[in-house]
TrEMBL record, chains A, B:
Segments forming domain HTH tetR-type: 35-95
One protein family per Pfam: TetR_C_1
Upper taxonomic lineage: Bacteria, Bacillati, Actinomycetota, Actinomycetes, Kitasatosporales
Name this protein carries in UniProt: TetR/AcrR family transcriptional regulator C-terminal domain-containing protein
Composition-biased stretches (Pro residues): 257-268
Keyword tags: DNA-binding, Repressor, Transcription, Transcription regulation
DNA-binding region: 58-77
Domain of life: Bacteria
InterPro entries: Homeodomain-like_sf, HTH-type_TetR-like_transc_reg, HTH_TetR, Repressor_TetR_C, Tet_transcr_reg_TetR, Tet_transcr_reg_TetR-rel_C_sf
Residue ranges, annotated region (Disordered): 242-268
DNA sequence: ACCTGAACACCGTTCAAGT
DNA sequence: ACCTGAACACCGTTCAAGT
C-alpha cells in the first residue's frame, strides 16, 4: 500500500496510497449518527465545493459547516489535499461504469456515453476539473470507470498497445475541454458579464490589433457543438486505427509517423 | 477594449481586456535601465515560476527577487492573476506560428509540429498548464498561435463549421495530457519517489482490492508513446472528416451522430 | 480516541503616507 | 509618478493540552 515515501516529513503521492493506522479506520464497527468520520467529512466537502467553488473552499470553512473546530478535521485527514482527492473520487462515483460485455452494445456509442457522462460530471461539479490537474485521480471510482472504458475500447478491435493512447486521447480531451469551458464560465461570472459580452469585447480588442484582423472574426465562445464535433473526431480516429489504415498506428509501418522529424530535442 | 464590467469592485475577465490608463503605460518614451516596468516584472515572474513552481509563487517573493517592496508591483499590475496571465502569454511567445501558405507544407505534419511544440512548451514551463485551467489564454501570443493553427487546419479541406471542433480536439487534448503528466511528475517528485515506484505502489494497492484485479495490470505511467498514438488518433479523425465519411460530421447526415440518444438531459 | 486553543509562518490586497 | 509600511482578513498546519 505504501509508495515507499513515508520517511519523516515527506508528502504522500495520493491519499489512496496511504498507510492508514488501523486505529483510525473507525474504532467501533458500524456507522454512528454522532461524531465525525471520513464519509461525513467528504460529503460536507463536496457540498461546500459545489456551493462555494474551489477558491473559497478552506479547512476552516468546512469545519464551521460541520459545527466543529478547524483542527478536528485533521484527526481524519492528513491535509487539505487529501480531502480534495477524497471529494474528487466521491463525485466520480456518480459515473456509471460501461459494460463492455453488454448484449448488442456498440463500442462507439458506449464511448460517446462515457465521454458525455464525464463531461456532465465536470459540469455539475465545476471545481473537479481544477483538482484533476493537481492530483493523481487514482481513487476507486476513477479507476473503475477508466478500466471499464478501456475494456469497451478493446472491443473495437484496436490493438492493445494502442488502447492507452486512445484512452488518453479521449479522457485528456474531455478533461481539457471541460477545464477550458469552466475557466471561461468562472471568469465571466466573477466579472458579472455574460459569456457572449466577454467574447464581443475580445473580438473588438483583437480587431484593434493589426496583426489579428485576419481571423479575429473566427473568435467565439467554446461552442456547445464543438464538443460533439471534437468527440466524433477522436472516435473516427480510433476507428481508423482499427482498420489498420491511417490512424493511430505507432510503429512497424512503411512511413513511421511517430516521431516525424523532431523539431527540437526536448520537444519530442 | 473594456468588457463592460468595470463597475466598482468587479473583477476583470482578463488582463487583455483591461482599460489601462494611458498615464501608466510608461510615461517617457523608451526603455530605461532603472526602475520597473511590466516587461521586467513579467520576466521576473516567469523566472520565479520556472524555478519555484506555481504553488510557491507569491507577490512577496517576486518583489523580493526584484529588490523591491511587495506592494510596488501593484503599481504595474492590478492583481496576482493578471501577472500570471502576462507570464503565460510571455512563454507562449516561444511558439512558432505555423505558416499555412508555406510551399509544399503538409497540414498533417504542421499539426503534429504545433502539437509537439505546445507540449514542449508546457513541459519547459510546468506551471503553465496549471494556469491554463484558470485563465482565458487570449493574449496576443496565444491568439496568434491558435489562429495560425486554425488556418493550417482549414487547408486540410475540413469544412469551416468543423474547424473549431477539430481545433478543440487538438488543443484540449494536448493541454489535458500535459496537465495530467505534470501532476504525476509534481506529486512524485514532492514525495521523493520515482514515477515508476509510484506506479508499482498503485498497482499493488489496486491488486489488493478485489474489484480491480481485472485490468489492474494495465495500469502504468502515462507513457511517452501514448501521446503520439493519441495525436495520430486526433489527426486521423480530422482526416476522416475531410473525406466526408465517418468522422466529425455534425449535421445533415442520414444518421446524425450528435446527439445520439441523450443519456440524461443535463449531460448533453 | 477524539477534540480544542493558541500559535507560527505565511498569503493577497487596501490604504494612507511618503518622495 | 512611483514606492513604502502598516494593517486587514484571511490561509494551512503544528503542537501541547484537554476530556
Amino acid at each position: 500500500m505504501s509508495d515507499g515515501s513515508r520517511t519523516s516529513r515527506m508528502r504522500r503521492t495520493s491519499v489512496w496510497l496511504e498507510d492508514r493506522p488501523e486505529a483510525r479506520r473507525k474504532a467501533s464497527g458500524a456507522s454512528q449518527t454522532e461524531g465525525l468520520d471520513r464519509e461525513k467529512i467528504t460529503a460536507a466537502a463536496v457540498r461546500l465545493l459545489d456551493t462555494e467553488g474551489l477558491a473559497r473552499f478552506s479547512m476552516r470553512r468546512l469545519a464551521a459547516d460541520l459545527g466543529v473546530t478547524a483542527m478536528s478535521v485533521y484527526w481524519y485527514v492528513d491535509r487539505k489535499d487529501d480531502l480534495l482527492e477524497l471529494a474528487l473520487d466521491a463525485v466520480e462515483g456518480e459515473l456509471e461504469v460501461p459494460d463492455a460485455e453488454a448484449e448488442g452494445a456498440d463500442w462507439r456509442e458506449q464511448l460517446r456515453q462515457a465521454a458525455f457522462a464525464l463531461r456532465g460530471l465536470l459540469r455539475r461539479h465545476p471545481w473537479a476539473s481544477g483538482t484533476l490537474g493537481s492530483f493523481l485521480n487514482v481513487g476507486p471510482s476513477a479507476m473503475g470507470f477508466q478500466l471499464g472504458v478501456r475494456r469497451v475500447l478493446l472491443r473495437s478491435g484496436l490493438p492493445e498497445q494502442q488502447a492507452d493512447g486512445a484512452l488518453a486521447a479521449l479522457f485528456s480531451f474531455v478533461y481539457g475541454h471541460a477545464a477550458v469551458e469552466e475557466s471561461w464560465n468562472r471568469r465571466c461570472s466573477e466579472a458579472g458579464v455574460s459569456s457572449q459580452d466577454c467574447f464581443d469585447a475580445l473580438r473588438t480588442a483583437l480587431g484593434a490589433r493589426p496583426e489579428y484582423t485576419a481571423g479575429a472574426e473566427a473568435v467565439y465562445p467554446v461552442a456547445e457543438r464543438d464538443f460533439g464535433v471534437a468527440l466524433e473526431c477522436v472516435i473516427a480516429g480510433i476507428e481508423a486505427g482499427t482498420r489498420g489504415g491511417r490512424g493511430p498506428a505507432p510503429q512497424g509501418r512503411a512511413t513511421p509517423v511517430i516521431p516525424p522529424q523532431p523539431p527540437s530535442p526536448e520537444d519530442r
